[in-house]
């Protein structure tokens, strides 16, 4: 038991230090040896836990998607089955807040540093679980007549694109250069964009 705990502790130290290094630099500059130095471990220690740098990044991305899923679910504390339009918009805000608060995770989750995410079953499962929160929310809103009947997957992809694009532009500071688009209060600017999006998804009168 002690050896297992030590192994888990070392693995966790590697992941924590890798995340810290990503906040300071780029994915390309990260290496298992750099992680070992930052964690105060021997140069070969990370290789006993991760078969490659990509495998370590995949585990970090998996952890990121799990936290991301919890963030999305927090918009409707009673459960996705109780989703309303207000909580749906709040979920979008939670999306952007996660991107702002966890840039290293976000970069791994939606970047290209992991060549084939499907090669890592835990990562693929975590990503699908996060996306299913959005998908299920749309299906709930369709059942109660807030969103028009239509295949839910394309609608979910559209909402995701709006949230992702807004997050990327906000992180890059682009909105501050366009008068009247967002201003200091990005949440009201985001809400305005969600209102436009939802207006287009409402059932026909």
From TrEMBL:
InterPro entries membership: Homeodomain-like_sf, HTH-type_TetR-like_transc_reg, HTH_TetR, MT1864/Rv1816-like_C, Tet_transcr_reg_TetR-rel_C_sf
DNA-binding region(s), residue ranges: 31-50
Record carries keyword Transcription regulation: yes
Annotated keywords: DNA-binding, Transcription, Transcription regulation
A Pfam family this chain is assigned to: TetR_C_33
Matches recorded under Gene3D superfamilies: Tetracycline Repressor, domain 2
Gene Ontology molecular function, alphabetical: DNA-binding transcription factor activity; transcription cis-regulatory region binding
Residues annotated as domain HTH tetR-type: 8-68
Classification via PANTHER family: HTH-TYPE TRANSCRIPTIONAL REGULATOR RUTR, TETR-FAMILY REGULATORY PROTEIN
Name of the protein in question: TetR family transcriptional regulator
Source organism (scientific name): Abyssibacter profundi
Lineage, top ranks: Bacteria, Pseudomonadati, Pseudomonadota, Gammaproteobacteria, Chromatiales
């Amino acid at each position: 038991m002690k050896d297992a705990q030590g192994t888990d502790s070392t693995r966790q130290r590697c992941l924590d230090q890798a995340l810290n290094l990503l906040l300071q630099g780029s994915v390309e500059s990260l290496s298992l040896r750099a992680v070992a130095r930052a964690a105060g471990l021997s140069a070969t220690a990370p290789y006993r836990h991760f078969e490659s740098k990509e495998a370590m990044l995949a585990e970090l991305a998996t952890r990121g998607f799990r936290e991301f899923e919890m963030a999305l679910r927090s918009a409707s504390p009673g459960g996705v089955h109780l989703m309303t339009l207000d909580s749906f918009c709040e979920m979008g805000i939670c999306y952007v807040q996660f991107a702002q608060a966890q840039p290293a995770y976000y970069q791994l989750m939606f970047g290209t540093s992991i060549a084939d995410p499907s090669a890592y079953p835990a990562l693929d499962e975590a990503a699908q679980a996060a996306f299913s929160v959005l998908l299920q929310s749309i299906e709930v809103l369709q059942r109660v007549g807030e969103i028009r009947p239509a295949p839910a997957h394309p609608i979910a992809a559209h909402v995701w694109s709006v949230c992702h694009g807004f997050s990327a532009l906000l992180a890059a500071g682009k909105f501050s250069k366009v008068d009247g688009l967002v201003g200091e209060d990005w949440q009201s600017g985001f809400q305005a964009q969600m209102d436009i999006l939802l207006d287009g998804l409402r059932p026909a009168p």
